[in-house]
Design a protein that fits this description.
By secondary structure, the protein is mainly α. Helices cover 64% and strands 8% of the residues. It folds into two domains: 10-119, Winged helix-like DNA-binding domain superfamily/Winged helix DNA-binding domain (Arc Repressor Mutant, subunit A), CATH 1.10.10.10; 123-154. It is built from six helices and three strands, in the order ααβααββαα. The chain has a three-stranded antiparallel β-sheet with strand order 1-3-2.
């Protein structure tokens, strides 16, 4: 028996995220030399506005500490982030945006905006606003049904 999942909420949300992520990754690599994962690190640091430990960053991004360590190492080598020893725990590294990282974030946001315009091009401005509002409600419903799971990720 063949099943069709293409109209199910979870399938659609995951498929849209997968397609958007793959296209963003390709364009970001081509245009600014950063992967989607590296852009997520920069975005998380920008949203925080202050240094955070690599462990906190890993938890926030729901990635392993080893993965985040590698991402931060490459970003540091390219001059996008600064890593320093934590003043509280000398074994821990704190990460913050380097000067100039805002330009990379602006470029990443332009890529994202362009993809969003393409993805939502068939929708009116009102429909776009309604879609975002409905997704926010769906996210809130999921967060309320599973307390303690943390905040939604960007």
């Amino acid at each position: 028996m063949k099943r069709d999942f293409t109209q199910r909420f979870s399938f659609l949300v995951n498929d849209v995220a997968r397609l958007f992520g793959a296209q963003f990754d390709r364009l970001a690599r081509e245009r600014i030399g950063l992967s989607r994962a590296q852009c997520r690190v920069l975005g998380a640091l920008a949203m925080r506005g202050e240094p955070m430990s690599q462990a906190e960053l890993a938890q926030h991004l729901e990635l392993s500490a080893m993965t985040v360590g590698g991402l931060c190492e490459r970003l540091e080598a390219a001059g996008w982030v600064l890593r320093t020893t934590s003043p509280v725990d000398r074994r821990a590294k704190e990460v913050q945006l380097a000067e100039g990282a805002e330009k990379a974030l602006d470029a990443a946001l332009k890529i994202s905006d362009s993809l969003q315009a393409s993805a939502l091009g068939a929708l009116s401005p009102e429909e776009r606003a309604q879609l975002v509002a409905l997704l926010i409600k769906a996210r809130q419903g999921l967060m309320e049904s599973a307390p303690g799971t943390g905040e939604a990720q960007p």
